[in-house]
Amino acid sequence: MGTGASLMAGWTFLLIWAVRKPIERRIIIFLTAFPVVFGLFIVTLIAFLNGNKTSVWILVKTAILIIAMSNSYILSGKIEKKDETI
Questions:
Q1: How far apart are alpha carbons 43 and 55 in whole angstroms?
Q2: What is the pTM of this model?
Q3: Which has the closest alpha carbon to 44: 65, 69, 28, 14?
Q4: How far apart are alpha carbons 23 and 73 in whole angstroms?
Protein backbone atom coordinates (compact mmCIF):
# COMPACT_ATOMS: atom_id res chain seq x y z
CA MET A 1 0.00 0.00 0.00
CA GLY A 2 2.84 2.38 0.79
CA THR A 3 4.50 1.80 -2.56
CA GLY A 4 1.25 2.37 -4.42
CA ALA A 5 0.51 5.49 -2.40
CA SER A 6 3.91 7.02 -3.11
CA LEU A 7 3.61 6.28 -6.84
CA MET A 8 0.13 7.81 -6.96
CA ALA A 9 1.33 10.89 -5.05
CA GLY A 10 4.20 11.33 -7.50
CA TRP A 11 1.90 10.97 -10.49
CA THR A 12 -0.50 13.49 -8.95
CA PHE A 13 2.28 16.06 -8.62
CA LEU A 14 3.34 15.35 -12.21
CA LEU A 15 -0.20 16.05 -13.40
CA ILE A 16 -0.33 19.27 -11.35
CA TRP A 17 2.94 20.33 -13.02
CA ALA A 18 1.54 19.52 -16.48
CA VAL A 19 -1.67 21.48 -15.96
CA ARG A 20 0.29 24.73 -15.74
CA LYS A 21 1.22 24.51 -19.45
CA PRO A 22 -1.17 21.90 -20.84
CA ILE A 23 -0.45 22.38 -24.53
CA GLU A 24 3.34 22.27 -24.15
CA ARG A 25 3.23 19.32 -21.74
CA ARG A 26 0.51 17.33 -23.51
CA ILE A 27 2.65 14.20 -23.61
CA ILE A 28 1.78 13.70 -19.93
CA ILE A 29 -1.87 13.05 -20.84
CA PHE A 30 -0.70 10.44 -23.35
CA LEU A 31 1.52 8.77 -20.72
CA THR A 32 -1.38 8.75 -18.29
CA ALA A 33 -3.87 7.34 -20.79
CA PHE A 34 -1.90 4.40 -22.04
CA PRO A 35 0.40 2.86 -19.51
CA VAL A 36 -1.73 3.84 -16.50
CA VAL A 37 -5.41 3.88 -17.50
CA PHE A 38 -5.08 1.27 -20.24
CA GLY A 39 -3.22 -1.00 -17.79
CA LEU A 40 -6.06 -0.62 -15.30
CA PHE A 41 -8.51 -1.44 -18.09
CA ILE A 42 -6.65 -4.66 -18.97
CA VAL A 43 -6.37 -5.80 -15.35
CA THR A 44 -10.06 -5.11 -14.78
CA LEU A 45 -11.01 -6.87 -18.01
CA ILE A 46 -9.13 -9.97 -16.86
CA ALA A 47 -10.94 -9.84 -13.51
CA PHE A 48 -14.27 -9.42 -15.30
CA LEU A 49 -13.59 -12.39 -17.57
CA ASN A 50 -12.64 -14.46 -14.52
CA GLY A 51 -16.08 -13.91 -13.02
CA ASN A 52 -15.90 -10.61 -11.14
CA LYS A 53 -19.03 -9.07 -12.67
CA THR A 54 -19.04 -6.10 -10.26
CA SER A 55 -15.97 -4.63 -11.98
CA VAL A 56 -17.92 -3.73 -15.12
CA TRP A 57 -18.30 -0.13 -13.92
CA ILE A 58 -14.49 0.22 -13.80
CA LEU A 59 -14.31 -1.04 -17.39
CA VAL A 60 -16.81 1.60 -18.49
CA LYS A 61 -15.04 4.41 -16.62
CA THR A 62 -11.59 3.51 -17.90
CA ALA A 63 -12.84 3.18 -21.48
CA ILE A 64 -14.39 6.66 -21.25
CA LEU A 65 -11.17 8.03 -19.75
CA ILE A 66 -9.02 6.54 -22.51
CA ILE A 67 -11.28 8.03 -25.19
CA ALA A 68 -11.38 11.45 -23.49
CA MET A 69 -7.62 11.54 -22.89
CA SER A 70 -6.81 10.46 -26.45
CA ASN A 71 -9.16 13.11 -27.79
CA SER A 72 -7.54 15.76 -25.56
CA TYR A 73 -4.09 14.77 -26.78
CA ILE A 74 -5.12 15.01 -30.43
CA LEU A 75 -6.95 18.32 -30.00
CA SER A 76 -4.06 19.87 -28.08
CA GLY A 77 -1.74 18.92 -30.93
CA LYS A 78 -4.01 20.78 -33.35
CA ILE A 79 -4.03 23.82 -31.05
CA GLU A 80 -0.24 23.75 -30.84
CA LYS A 81 0.09 23.62 -34.65
CA LYS A 82 -2.40 26.47 -35.01
CA ASP A 83 -0.45 28.59 -32.51
CA GLU A 84 2.81 27.97 -34.40
CA THR A 85 1.36 29.28 -37.66
CA ILE A 86 0.20 32.55 -36.10
A1: 10
A2: 0.78
A3: 65
A4: 9
